[in-house]
Amino acid sequence: MEFSIVTFLLIMVAMAFADVCWTLYFIDVEERKAHPAAFWSAMIILVTAFSVTNYVENKIYIAAAFIGAYIGTYGTLKWKLYKEKHHVQSESSQTKEA
């Protein structure tokens, strides 16, 4: 089984993107947005299929999937919290101006 740093990095990025998709999927499901949730569901299958077919070949690539999954979920939730915080701040500044 041959190891490739490029494949390792691609799997890591793909799994990060897959977890972004999962996180956004759950957010859209919670908000009852059917079309966006369906889109993210389809993206999850597409990206995960790429990752799985690669790390089944070489078990070391599971580490790439692990790292990518962590980064994807963590980054998406931090971005969502940042976005919500700034949305609340902009609403409160608009209320004070009115």
* DSSP, total strands: 0
Helical fraction equals: over 70%
Secondary-structure element string:
HHH
DSSP summary: helix tally: 3
Rg over CA atoms = 17 Å
Mean pLDDT: 87
State the low-pLDDT regions, or none.
none
Q: Outline the biggest β-sheet.
A: none
Which structural category do the helix and sheet elements fall into? mainly alpha
Cα(first) to Cα(last) distance is 66 Å
Tell me, briefly, the overall form.
elongated
Strand content: under 5%
Protein model, in words:
With 98 residues, this protein is mainly α. The chain is built from 3 helices and no strands. It has helices at 5-30, 34-55, 61-97. Helix 1 (5-30) runs antiparallel to helix 2 (34-55) and helix 1 (5-30) packs across helix 3 (61-97). The longest helix has 37 residues, at 61-97. The chain is elongated and about 65 Å long.
